[in-house]
Amino acid sequence: MKLAEGSSTAILGTDALRIRPRFGVGRSPLITFLLLLPGFGAIAFLFLLPLWLVIQLSFAPEGTDAGFTLDNYAAFLGSPTLRGALFLTIELAVFATLFSIVLSVPLALVLRRPFRGNRLFRLLILLPLMIPALVSAVGLRLFWGDVGWANLTIQLLPFVDGPIRVVFTVPGLVLFYVWLFFPFTALLTLAALEGVDPAIEEAAEVSGASRWRVLRHVLLPLAMPGILAGSVLTFIEAFGAFSIPLIAGGDNRPLSVQIYTVSAIFLHWNQGAAMSVVMGAAQIIFLVTYFRLLRRQQPA
Amino acid sequence: MTQLPAVYGRSIWNGRRLLSYTLLLAFLLYMLAPLVIIAVSSFGKSWFGPTFLPQDWGLDWYAWAASIGNIPEVLKNSLVIAALAVVMSLALAAPTAWALGRRRVPFRSGLNTLVLLPKMLPPIAFALGVAKLFYAIGVVDTLFGVALAHVTITLPFAILVMSSTFAGIDDRLIEAAEVCGSRPWRTFLWVILPLAMPGILSAAIFVFTTSYNEFTLTLLTYGPHTVTLPVKTYLVIGDGFVPVGSAISMILLVPSLLVLLLIQGQLKPDKLIGGLKGV
Q: B89-109: per-residue pLDDT in tens?
């Protein structure tokens, strides 16, 4: 089976829709409108309306559907636990993004050369994207648990007694986040490195640059747009991660888990809505800032 | 790939090479071990204490999953919901994708942003609103309702994939068909549809796996009659039956791995970013 050409850009959502309309087709605005209606009607009903409901709930007094109060936000920002959740979310996302870059760059440098088994490793990168996050959480929890394979192996080393706690700790969560979300960074880094013209690299080497200098001054700067674009995606996913912290977070509850707990378990929907709004806003602010910075860096 | 210089050939065990192999081996273990251990735990009848492998093997946990976890029913729910999500997503997306891909559309960039917006927000942030709305219109705990909740996530994706497919259809082929006297419906059936099929199919596959794996939105709209596999896994793990959770996870893995096999020869990895699963 062959999959659609261009689904890449479609999935990335960068420029898939920048398609010039053909002439000769599509003159009647009425028909265009009728065609657009099902898709955008559904988006309005299934996404914009719920979004509006969340915003409305967040300003309504607890237990009601409408009204205006800032109590929910005050309660959120006034509670050390919930404030902690916000910081934890940011902390996890930032560290997961950084370590994803640390893993992806060497990996991409190795994988861009042909060797036997190269394809297998490229498939491995895809694995976390394909399997349900929930299943990954189950596996990571088993593997890194106190009697999991990782700990059993570590204890074979001298001077290590007792299991090292990984599951239910913040560093453990970062480790799991990296497993789950690094593919975004790795795939785009790999694509960027493969896009570097070998002639440029060669020119640097012929001019006597050491491998390290070629990497530092030629390869990395040229691959930087890819690395950055990938890390944005990793950050977005890590910021919104839900299944992993729910199953393998223990008492470390980032915003996503707190929102679920507060609203669906304690039934404080308005409180949960206020937290959702803050979470959504934080992510939008981050994205806008990030794209501004990117644009400033590359005036082209 | 040209000749990046002789460093490679110099000696088998030079440091660089050793470093590369160490990295690859560590990466292989880091990625695969968590999945292998799920399989081992699901087939391990009894596995107590710090040992590398279970003391006893058997299919007991699968039997548990089937009887106590009520897996046949849950699997049926998951499949029906995923199928409904595919039908609804494709039906809603196709006309809109056609317009976006092939027609003159006003406010194009605004509409594009609107399509992308659900992908930019954390799902949990609007999942509350979806739950609220679904309670209000009374579709919570129906197969239709849960599938509709999944459409929230899958629709933008279906629109994006299909619109770029439609846009890629060569006008000259359509013109050629028309010049040869084909009526519009024949052109549609025998020219446009076959050309668009790869895009439609990949959208369908992606929607299906996304829905089959979707957890966040299901968790807020499910009920006793609409437990899906991911929700069941979560509930079982929450009750402390980790090996049963592993057994259900194995069932959950099947379609994802099938898709991985299916696409591995067809797509460049970097074409796959995103959109494949609920977070």
A: 999 999 999 999 888 888 888
Q: Do B198 and A22 touch (CB under 8 A)?
A: no
* Chain Cα centroid distance, residue A238: 4
| B118 vs B49, more confident | B118
Q: Which residues of A touch B164 (CB under 8 A)?
A: 4-7, 9-10, 16-17, 19
CA-nearest residue of chain B to A242? B279
Residue B66: name the closest of B57, B51, B76, B56 by CA: B76
Between A176 and A29, name the one with better pLDDT: A176
B45 secondary structure, DSSP code: E
- Measured distance CA(B210)–CA(B147) in Å, rounded: 11
* pLDDT at position A257: 94
How deeply is B83 buried, as exposed, middle or buried, from its count of CB atoms within 10 A (0-12, 13-18, 19+)? middle
Helices (H) and strands (E) in chain A, counts: 15, 0
Taking residues A273-291, what's their average pLDDT? 91
Distance CA A224, CA A294 (A): 11
Q: Do A149 and B130 touch (CB under 8 A)?
A: no
Helix (H) or strand (E) holding B44: strand B44-46
Given the cut 0.90, state whether the ipTM is greater than it: no
Which of B34, B38, B103 is facing A32, going by the closest CB pair?
B103
Contact A233 B273 (CB under 8 A): yes
Q: Which of A142, A144, A240 sits opposite B123 (nearest CB)?
A: A240
- The beta-carbon neighbor of B92 closest among A39, A132, A148 is A39
pTM of the model: 0.85
Name the more confident of A79 and A291: A79
Confirm if A90 and A172 have CB atoms less than 8 A apart.
no
In DSSP terms, B46 is beta-bridged to B56
Torsion over CA: B199, B204, B210, B214 (sign): positive
Q: Distance between the two ends of chain A, CA-based, in angstroms? A: 38
B28/A124 touch (CB, cutoff 8 Å), yes or no: yes
Alpha carbon of B109: minimum distance to chain A alpha carbons (Å): 8
From chain A, pick out residues whose CB is under 8 angstroms from the CB of B2: 198, 202
